[in-house]
Amino acid sequence: MGKTLTISQMCEEFGVTPRTLRFYEDKELLSPIRDGQKRLYTKREIGRLKWILHGKRFGFALEEIRELLELYYLGDQQETQLRRTYEVGVKHLETLRAKKEELNSSIDDLEELLATCRELIETLPNKQTAAE
Amino acid sequence: MGKTLTISQMCEEFGVTPRTLRFYEDKELLSPIRDGQKRLYTKREIGRLKWILHGKRFGFALEEIRELLELYYLGDQQETQLRRTYEVGVKHLETLRAKKEELNSSIDDLEELLATCRELIETLPNKQTAAE
DNA sequence: CACGAAGCTTACGTTAACGTAAACTAGACC
DNA sequence: GGTCTAGTTTACGTTAACGTAAGCTTCGTG
């Protein structure tokens, strides 16, 4: 079996706390194997955690992320389930693309605002530290 | 004065509840004018709300958004304050750009996963409703 | 004038996503 | 054998972002 990480190594690696990892496990987003009592995180769990963190940064709820995570263990599922999983993925992809559009226009807007702001600053070159 | 919207018009327009708008006001993200008791939302508040909703969809906290919103009333601020506001905006822009990168690679990853998933489905054209 | 619709304030409730503390265990090292 | 370190379970606490309900005002209309 491949290399595994302990919980503290995981925390180090991804900047999360043990509590967070156990919480995700409780919510069935992760399912590390056990060495006695201790959790060991395989490559699969690492991949899943990466997705979780991505998802979070884009404002998805853990529950939404969980559904998508099924794409990560395309094991011996039934066809029906496989198709359903695929559909979830497609929908998520559409959402991501929409977010991309929105993000791009947000960036454009902000750039414009900053330009205006820059002008404003430059047209006030008088160093009046106007104590109000 | 320009056109203003009532609270229910705002809710209709942006798909939020009155409670949400009052909450944002309480947190000083919005500050509608008053007609007696009633709130009236000007163009400025509308612009701000748009930003708030954008920000939320990208996973920013209200408090982070609030800072950025100062870019929206570049009124008669002191230069120091103006520069600070500008800096906040620049930082936010960087964050957005980073998110854009992450988003793009997430999209790529997901597309790949979906391709794999599609193959898997196609290589199983046997309609075995394998009851486990 | 009654009253219904729209809005208001005040305040307690709820959910997601963890934080934090207490008390236990199991292997490592002196 | 003691104790240090890393890890565990259990359970209550916390924060953000609203939901929800109660009771009051104001305005237009029959």
Shape of chain A: flat
What is the end-to-end distance of chain A? 69 Å
- If helices are DSSP runs of H or I spanning 4 or more residues, what is the number of helices of chain A? 5
Biggest sheet descriptor of chain A: 2 strands, antiparallel
Q: Would you list the SSEs of chain A in sequence order as H and E?
A: HHEEHHH
Rounded to the nearest angstrom, the radius of gyration of chain A is: 22 Å
Most extensive chain contact? A-B, 43 and 43 residues
Uncertain regions of chain A: pLDDT < 50 for 5+ in a row?
none
| Average residue pLDDT of chain A | 90
Task: Describe the model.
The structure is a homodimer of 132-residue chains. Chain A is mainly α and 132 residues long. Chain A is built from five helices and two strands. In chain A, strands 1-2 form a two-stranded antiparallel ribbon. The termini of chain A are far apart. Chain A binds a DNA duplex (30 and 30 nucleotides) through helix 2.
